[in-house]
Amino acid sequence: MNLKDIQKQFNLDQVWIMTIQASFQRAKVYKGHTNKDQRKRELRKQIEDLALQYDKVVSDEQHIQNILSLRCQDDIGLNINFGVAQKLLNLYLKYLWTLGYLRYPPPHFPVDRMIQQALK
Predict the structure, then answer these.
(1) Handedness of CA 8, 86, 23, 118 (dihedral sign)
(2) Which pLDDT tens digit goes with each residue over 31-89?
(3) How far is CA 113 from the centre of its chain?
(4) Considering Cα of 52, then 58, then 62, then 65, what sign does the dihedral take?
(5) What is the 3 state secondary structure string of the chain?
(6) pTM for this structure?
(7) 52 partner at 20 to 30 Å CA-CA among 35, 90, 92, 100?
(8) 120: burial class by Cβ within 10 Å (0-12, 13-18, 19+)?
(9) What is the CA 71 to chain-centroid distance, rounded?
(10) How far is CA 99 from CA 8, 57, 94, 96, in A?
């Protein structure tokens, strides 16, 4: 692995940490007492696979389908509702776009409180 690859992997790891923290902070998504790290790894793989679609313009309809595909996750022991799924995918894509890893802005760009207050 060259330095550029190491830097990109570091950035992607940080993006994932920030995305999970922001998305799961108040949501009760874990079911049972199994390994949370394993659950997050499986979810990360799903989101990374979905993010590959966003190298081109993705329609609103397809984006909504991608969000819906992240809901529930009973098979890996997660209880993810639509709002959490939406935040997970939208925030992850926002970070990728702002880092220059996506050519096109995500369809539903998350707007945080600071931006909302500035726009009134």
Answers:
(1) positive
(2) 766 678 888 898 999 999 999 999 999 999 999 999 999 987 766 677 888 888 999 99
(3) 18
(4) positive
(5) CCHHHHHHHHHHHHHHHHHHHHHHCCCCCECCCCCHHHHHHHHHHHHHHHHHHHHCCCCHHHHHHHHHHHCECHHHCECECHHHHHHHHHHHHHHHHHCCCCCCCCCCCCCCHHHHHHHC
(6) 0.83
(7) 35
(8) exposed
(9) 12
(10) 10, 17, 9, 5
Q: Which amino acid is at 63?
A: H
Q: φ and ψ at 80, to 5 degrees?
A: -110, 120
81 token code pair: 């509702």
Tokens representing residue 5 in the block: 């690859």
Q: Which two tokens stand for residue 33?
A: 């007492």
Type of residue found at 27: A
